[in-house]
Amino acid sequence: MAKKSGGGGCLAVVLVVGLLAFGYYKWQHGSSSAPPEGVDTGGGSGRYVALGDSYTSSPRTGRQAGTPAGCDRSDDNYPHLVSAKLKPAQFADVSCSGATTDHLSQAQKTGNGTNPPQLDAVTAETTLVTLGIGGNDIGLIAFASSCATTHQNSAPCRDRLTAGGHDQLAERIDATAPKVGALLDRIHEKASKAKVVVVGYPTVLPDGNGCWPSLPFGAGDIEYFRGTLGKLNKMLEDQADAHRAGYADTATPGKGHDVCSASDTRWVEGLLPASPAIPLHPNARGEQGMADAVLAVLKLP
């Protein structure tokens, strides 16, 4: 049963929004230190290349790995966990916070350095590629601060984004689909022998009305964004099926581990992270869950 809102709830919303804005600024402007890291040699066989955005790079969950520092890669993200299991001869994690599909073929400027086109890391010798992309093309995280509300039963973002009968985020998902398909085709062209796995996004929002004011989104917006993330994952799965790639479903095992779940079980942090992570992104537990989903596709324990 929802609790009656009061002044305390409104104050919590104001504090959350202010801290989220500060955290988002720090994330966008990157870290000031970055130990150099190129391609890791694990001593086994094959070459594994990880491509993706911040759900792949996993900002602030572990020690920073690789350059540029502005990509905010952590050494406990799912690519590193998969690599530790596979032990390939070569491993390149070129994922980067803020990446869109364009940054697979174009350089990406960050607040602290420039990331080369991610596809540059895919070579003819590559035997495995994981791809986690699309969320920034849709703009899901970018709406986080603007959707916070002091009215628990409202839906300001849904109302704005579906005004006039046009669902802007659904249209962006449709527009992103052929870009993902083209990327998969390009990966196959560059690495014809590689196994390619598209990695979906984990469950971020719970079933039901959410957990206002801890997550200060109205019930209607919770439903809207939950449905939008489902549409995004369905698009990614469809593109994987159509372009000879596997699909790692992280949403199904992530159910019950959303931002409103207990802090010791959640995979994705809320606006005020209780574990090392940035807002509305996976923590180390979530990255392990995503790694397990990839390994399941590869039929490895």
From TrEMBL:
GO-annotated biological processes: triglyceride catabolic process
InterPro entries, alphabetized: SEST-like, SGNH_hydro, SGNH_hydro_sf
MF-aspect GO terms: triacylglycerol lipase activity
TM stretches of this protein: none
Gene3D superfamilies: SGNH hydrolase (3.40.50.1110)
Catalytic-site annotation from UniProt: S54 (nucleophile), H281
Signal peptide: none
Residue ranges of domain SGNH hydrolase-type esterase in the record: 50-288
Region (Disordered): 53-75
Bridged cysteine pairs (disulfide): C71-C96, C147-C157, C211-C260
Keyword entries, A-Z: Disulfide bond
Pfam families the UniProt entry points to: Lipase_GDSL_2 (PF13472)
Coiled coil ranges: none
Protein name: GDSL family lipase
Organism name: Amycolatopsis mediterranei (strain S699)
Lineage of the species this protein comes from: Bacteria, Bacillati, Actinomycetota, Actinomycetes, Pseudonocardiales
